[in-house]
Design goal:
This protein is α/β, with parallel strands linked by helices. Helices cover about 40% and strands about 15% of the residues. The chain is built from ten helices and eight strands. Strands 1-2-3-4-5-6-7-8 form an eight-stranded parallel β-barrel, surrounded by five helices. The longest helix is centred in the C-terminal third of the chain and has 19 residues. The chain starts with 6 loop residues before the first strand and ends with a helix. Bound molecules: phosphoenolpyruvate. The site of phosphoenolpyruvate has 14 residues, from strand 8.
Length: about 250
């Protein structure tokens, strides 16, 4: 089933001060020399979005945020709206990352509301789903991911640019990864559900894999059927590693 160009997105999480922008500079310089087949994005902490967008404007690296609220404005101290994310210069946003779900109690319904807000503002959402180790051990990984997906995707996504990131929680930041067969099983299940929900439009969104992707394992993961890119945490902080992952796609 044809889907769009792969997407390699870095997630800096709560990392990055002004000096870290040097890594973004180095990334752009290396990718300009050897342009990858994939689209590339860096999802920056909110404090760096504007400066990163200024730095990366006109390059092949897009800037993303790591979260936003559904509302456009209002009494939500400490939060940022989709419109603010756009105003700062980002074009993508991660939504429903497992750290947001676990640490901030985000439910599928909340994630779906954020997706609606992101689309209203013109952002490209990357909707994250993934099972825990207990769910994997109980044989419930596929069912869990499908349920999360069903609850997190509003109908308005059809025809818009967006993607899913499958990130098993137990693989994030641990150095552990599922087997290639386990990744393929989940990605095929996700694609089946996207097509069932959105018809032909469900074939388009890339389905990223995330969880301990590094320069050593990126190529074999990115070759798996229905893997349309990667969401990369730790390895996106060092330009040399992230470049290698981008080049592997
Ligand atoms: C992530 O934060 O989304 C992630 C996949 O992290 P890591 O690559 O460090 O496992």
């Amino acid at each position: 089933m044809a889907s769009s160009r792969p997407l390699i997105a870095g997630n800096w999480k709560m990392n990055g001060l002004t000096a870290s922008l040097d890594q973004a500079r180095a990334l752009v310089a290396a990718l300009a020399e050897h342009p990858p087949a994939a689209r590339v994005a860096l999802c920056a902490p909110a404090t760096l979005i504007e400066r990163m967008a200024a730095l990366l404007g006109g390059t092949m690296v897009a800037v993303g945020a790591q979260d936003c609220r559904p509302e456009s404005h209002g009494a939500f101290t400490g939060d940022i709206s989709p419109e603010m994310v756009v105003d700062a210069g980002a074009t993508l946003v991660l939504l429903g990352h497992s750290e947001r779900r676990a640490l901030h109690g985000e439910t599928d319904a909340m994630v779906a509301a954020k997706v609606i807000g992101a689309l209203r503002a013109g952002l490209e959402p990357i909707v994250c789903v993934g099972e825990s180790l207990d769910q994997r051990r109980a044989g419930a990984a596929v069912a869990m991911v499908r349920a999360q997906l069903a609850g997190s995707l509003p109908p308005g996504l059809a025809g818009r640019p967006w993607s899913v990131a499958y990130e098993p929680i137990w693989a994030i930041g641990t150095g552990e990864t599922p087997t290639l067969a386990q990744i393929e099983e989940i990605h095929r299940a996700i694609r089946g559900d996207l097509v069932a929900q959105f018809g032909e439009a469900g074939a388009a969104p890339p389905i990223l894999y995330g969880g301990s992707v590094n320069p050593g394992n990126a190529a074999e993961i990115l070759r798996i059927a229905e893997v349309g890119g990667a969401l990369v945490g730790g390895a996106s902080l060092k330009a040399v590693d992230f470049v290698a992952i981008c080049q592997a796609a």
